[in-house]
Amino acid sequence: MNQVMRATAAQLKAEILRTIRNRRFVIFTIIMPAMFYFIFTNTIGGNTQVGGVEWRAYYLMSMTAYGVIGASVTSLAVRFSRERSHGWTKMMRITPLPGWAQIAAKIAGQGLLNLFIILFMFALGAMVEGVRISAAQWIGCGLWIWLGSFSFMALGALLGTMRNVDVVQVIGNLTFMGLSIAGGLWMPISTMPDIMQTIARILPTYRLGQGAWSIVGNSGVEWGNVAVLAVYVLIFMVISTYIMRKQEAV
Predict the structure, then answer these.
(1) Burial (CB count <10 Å: 0-12, 13-18, 19+), residue 11
(2) Which residues pair with 49 in a beta bridge?
(3) Which of 61, 94, 109, 174 could form a disulfide with 15 if both were Cys (CB 3.0 to 4.6 A apart)?
(4) Could you report the per-residue pLDDT of 50-90, keeping only the tens digit for each?
(5) Can you list the positions of beta strands (E) in the chain?
(6) How far lies 204's CA from each of 21, 30, 99, 103, in Å?
């Protein structure tokens, strides 16, 4: 058991190091959210409010969710796809490391990276833009975004079932950007046409952002947001499991 735990820890370390050395990961999930946050908060102004929430705090949650979603969808999908296309997954099956440990290391590694993104963005918002919310709100928003990111890890795993890494990168980025824009993470859905607002409310990106916005606005997390994200996790997992079993059968 100790040997398995050591091997899992080594795999976890390798997953984290491999990800942070990827320039695309750093640019799209850390630099871009921070850049967008500074641009839009200073362009629109600090006195603006959305649903009774100060714009700086509101948009901080939007861009933090944006960064975490990008990390969960794109980087995880590419890693899964590259390992499958290069035969690394099959090779790992003949090692003493159990299959569950490999998956656990990937999920744990991505979870730690997501936590870093959240803390990084929150530190920027507090120290540079002067966001002032209670300690309970900081913790509540961070915990909500972190837990909600697991639904997007499931989406990343689903996209990773494709074996063409280049295709996965393109589709992953398009999916990530499309869901973020349509889900109101770039701009509030109140600025969108009615049909786009209706679409936004059924997207997981909007539900993740809505939970954090509600906490900042002292409304608390709505169970509807929890339910929608849970349904998406189930759908993504069922589809990805079915595809992998079909691929293994072939």
Answers:
(1) buried
(2) 54
(3) 109
(4) 878 899 999 999 999 999 999 888 888 888 777 776 655 55
(5) 49-50, 53-54
(6) 28, 21, 29, 23
Give the separation between CA 2 and CA 63, rounded to whole angstroms. 40
Supply the pTM of this predicted model.
0.88
Q: Residue type at 228?
A: V
What are 195-239's pLDDT values in tens digits? 999 999 999 999 999 999 999 987 777 888 999 999 999 999 889
DSSP 46: T
Tokens representing 184 are 């109101």
Tokens for 128? 């540079």
Q: How far is CA 36 from the centre of its chain?
A: 17
Both tokens of 236, joined, read 């993504």
Distance CA 81, CA 167 (A): 10
Question: How many CB atoms neighbour CB 116 within 10 A?
Answer: 17
Tally Cβ neighbours within 10 Å of residue 248: 9
Q: Which of 108, 119, 21 is nearest to 67 (CA)?
A: 119
Q: Do 186 and 62 form a contact (C-beta atoms < 8 A)?
A: yes
